[in-house]
């Protein structure tokens, strides 16, 4: 149940994690650190440049029990969205 | 939450990176992680200036202790090391690509509460005392590792 790019762009994420320029495992370390600041049910956006995050953030969500909403790439940055579910 | 155990046998810089990246990734996924450092892997837990161990040692143990790299950034690459020149070049590329060094990965592992265990048998063989290793680690043997591995669902030998 992946959201469309338009739907994702319409989300105003209260917490945005900027992991651009950081290589593996930086983005998931950053996600893990920041998720604590997210209210249950709210969306967190992860910004990254490492293409591995396209697979890694969804895998991290599966393992952690969060809902991965989808991603899009724009101007060299990858935007990934997830909803804190536990 | 599940548990991962990693045996770090190798003292190669690149293998050490792999071990720590997996360990930190697992911890970031809420897994409990234990890393068991044995033989050449112990070098990563050494202080940069370990001093001389006060343990009684034979000449051979002193020789091993002298040759064993002092700390994570002194480890050699498994390939293209060229007496350390290759490692320096690799680190330059890593910096440019924002890849974490082994010492940064080690610090992150400690921050994340990853359990680091030094194998005491290897310490004896290599003439390394506790005072030569970094703080915040545990000391144990094969039974401790096996008991931890029994509770885990992934076990790696690196």
Provide an overview of this structure.
The complex is a heterodimer of chains A (86) and B (158). Chain A is built from three helices and four strands. Chain A has a single domain, classed as TusA-like domain (Translation Initiation Factor IF3, 2-Layer Sandwich). Chain A is an alpha+beta fold. In chain A, 31% of the residues lie in helices and 30% in strands. Chain B has a five-stranded parallel β-sheet, sandwiched between helices. Chain B has helices at residues 13-28, 59-67, 85-96, 102-111, 120-125, 142-151; strands at residues 3-8, 32-37, 115-119, 138-140, 154-157. Chain B is an alpha/beta fold and 158 residues long. The longest helix of chain B has 16 residues, at 13-28. In chain B, helix 1 packs parallel to helix 4 (102-111). Chain B has one domain: Hypothetical Protein Ychn, Chain: A. Chain B has six helices and five strands. Chains A and B meet through helix 2 and helix 3 of A and helix 1 of B.
Put the structure in a nutshell.
The complex is a heterodimer of chains A (86) and B (158). Chain A is an alpha+beta fold.
Q: What is the average of the pLDDT values of chain B? A: 93
Helix coverage percent of chain B: 25-40%
Distance between the ends of chain B? 23 Å
Tell me the distance between the termini of chain A: 18 Å
Order of neighbouring strands in the sheet with most strands of chain A: 1-2-4-3
The greatest interface here is:
A-B, 13 and 12 residues
Range of strand content of chain A: 25-35%
Number of E-type strands of chain A: 4
User: CATH superfamily name of chain A?
Assistant: TusA-like domain
Number of domains in the coordinates of chain B? Answer: 1
Shape of chain A: globular
Which residues of chain B sit in consecutive blocks of at least 5 with pLDDT less than 50? none
Oligomer: heterodimer
The CATH architecture of chain A would be 2-Layer Sandwich
Global Rg of chain A:
11 Å
Spell the H/E element sequence of chain A.
HEHEHEE
The CATH C-level class name of chain A: Alpha Beta
Largest sheet of chain B: 5 strands, parallel
């Amino acid at each position: 149940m992946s959201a469309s790019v338009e739907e994702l762009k319409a989300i105003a994420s209260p917490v945005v994690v900027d992991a651009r320029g950081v290589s593996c495992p930086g983005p998931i370390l950053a996600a893990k650190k920041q998720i604590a600041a997210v209210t249950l049910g709210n969306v967190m956006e992860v910004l990254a440049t490492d293409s591995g995050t396209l697979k890694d953030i969804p895998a991290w969500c599966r393992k952690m029990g969060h809902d991965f909403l989808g991603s899009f790439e724009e101007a060299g940055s990858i935007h990934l969205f997830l909803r804190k579910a536990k | 939450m599940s548990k991962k155990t990693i045996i770090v046998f190798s003292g190669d810089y690149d293998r050490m990176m792999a071990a720590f990246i997996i360990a930190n990734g697992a911890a970031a996924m809420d897994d409990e992680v234990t890393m068991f450092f044995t033989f050449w892997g112990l070098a990563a837990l050494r202080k940069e200036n370990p001093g001389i161990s006060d343990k009684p040692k034979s000449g051979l143990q002193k020789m091993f202790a002298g040759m064993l790299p002092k700390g994570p950034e002194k480890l050699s690459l498994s390939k293209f090391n060229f007496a350390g020149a290759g490692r320096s070049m690799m680190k330059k590329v890593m910096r440019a690509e924002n890849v974490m060094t082994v010492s940064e990965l080690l610090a992150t592992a400690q921050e994340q509460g990853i359990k680091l265990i030094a194998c005491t048998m290897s310490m004896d063989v290599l003439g390394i005392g506790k005072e030569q290793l970094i703080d915040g680690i545990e000391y144990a043997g094969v039974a401790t590792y096996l008991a931890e591995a029994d509770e885990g669902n992934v076990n790696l030998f690196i």
